[in-house]
Amino acid sequence: MTTDGKNKNNSKLSNFVASAFTGSGALAFITLMGIVSLFSDMTHEGARSILGEYLSLTGASGAAIGFVSGLGELLGYGLRIASGMIADRSKKYWTMVILGYTIQVMAIPALALVPDQGWIIACSLVVMERVGKAVKKPAKNTLVSFASAEVGQGMGFAWQEFLDQLGAFLGPVILFVISRINAGDSSLHTCRISFLFLGIPGIITVLLVLLARHKYPHPEEFDKTPDTREKFVFRNDFIFYMVAICLFAFGFIDFPIITLQGSRSGAFPLYTLSLLYALAMAVDAVAALFFGWLFDKAGLKSLMISTALSALFPVLIFSTKDPALITAGIVLWGIGMGAQESIMKAAVGKIIPKSMRSTGFGIFETGFGIAWFLGSWITGYFYDHNVTLMIGISVTAQLLAVVFYGITAHRSSEFAKQEKN
Asked: Per residue in 360-397, pLDDT tens?
């Protein structure tokens, strides 16, 4: 590349960053919402890094952890169809976002108050946190999709996901520091101190979302594209897409089971488990940016690539006690999660009409959540009884998802040709 080319690229990058953090347009709004997500993820993803071991310390079995993780995701996704419909009908997007964030981040410090052997109470708070996410997520995604119309759906969601995952990285790192400071205390006590500390970024989250509401009361004004579609239609390509994302969700093992494996296998001491999650979130952030960029250029092929890579993580994590191989598996898990959090939503944003976008996100995420629940429950059960079968189920489901992404891409191109004609 020539010097002029490098300068041009550097100028574009500088302009992007300047507009993101000092501007007042769509990108600045996406950045502010990304910072909200940063502190939110610092709270609940920080907690998630030790949640599997914490639930175990309070008396939960592997099957119970898998069930609760799946139930939380089921409600966290399943209730979005209702919250999405409420948001679309009332147009009170900000109300749903503020309420949901408040419920979500306040459930975390409450975990510190759970008594010994109080795993049922702890599990209830885990579910409560996911319900809060369900309340705010369709409305939040809708607001971001409005602004992303100016910068590209792939990059819009990817940039927000990048900032989001910075928080998901910092949260576990902070908990690692806390665990080192409290190295002489019991593991249960250290977990409780960690949950209390996470209340600080939780409070900051609520304050920032109130600031965003004050500064950008009408984000829908960012989306100037005409929308001639009056209602959402279940086209064949969308049906195949739903099948693909449900297969992916079914086979994608939840991280509490991975941290439990890291502890039980003896590959990693307890105090390093939060760092493993921090690694996954760092990979998630970078993968979101890369695959978001790739989505705007190559469409669903980007999801085919990311899912093919992530399909290998169960083999590396659960069939060995080698720390290096487990770490490599966690990297692949982070790639799959990063692409899922950015590209999947960007793809839906292109299919659903503006007037029904919250409802559409709710429908999409409900199917995803049901599949995640069933997969988490089943993989949690087989983790206790037959790890080899669990690995086979996870890998097969993800590879089948790649096939259906390919079918979706083919059908979408056919629809595009028909619309042109």
From this structure: 777 777 788 788 888 888 888 888 889 999 999 999 99
CB atoms under 10 Å from CB of 296, counted, come to: 17
pLDDT at 308: 93
Distances (CA, A) of 356 to 86, 90, 93, 207, 278: 11, 12, 12, 29, 36
What secondary structure does DSSP assign to 257-277, as a single string?
HHHHHHHHTSSS-GGGHHHHH
Name the nearest CA neighbour of 171 among 33, 337, 45, 35.
45
Q: What is the CATH number of the domain that holds 327?
A: 1.20.1250.20
Hey, CA dihedral for 15, 20, 24, 30, is it positive or negative?
Answer: positive
| Residue 18 pLDDT greater than 60, yes or no | no
Query: Which residue in 244, 310, 288 sits closest to 41, CA to CA?
Result: 288
The tokens for 329 are 């598996």
Contact 180, 271 (CB under 8 A): yes
Task: Note whether residue 152 is domain-resident.
Answer: yes
Residues 329, 324: Cα–Cα separation, whole Å: 9
At 118 the three-state DSSP class reads: coil
Confidence tier at 13 by pLDDT (50, 70, 90): very low
Per-residue pLDDT for 105 more than 60? yes
pLDDT tens digits for range 300-313: 888 899 999 999 99
Nearest to 253 by CA among 189, 308, 317: 317
Total domains present in the chain: 1
- Residue ranges with strand state E in 152-274: none
Q: What is the pTM of this model?
A: 0.71
The pair of structure tokens assigned to 301 is 């092929």
Supply the range of the domain harboring residue 306. Answer: 25-215+234-420
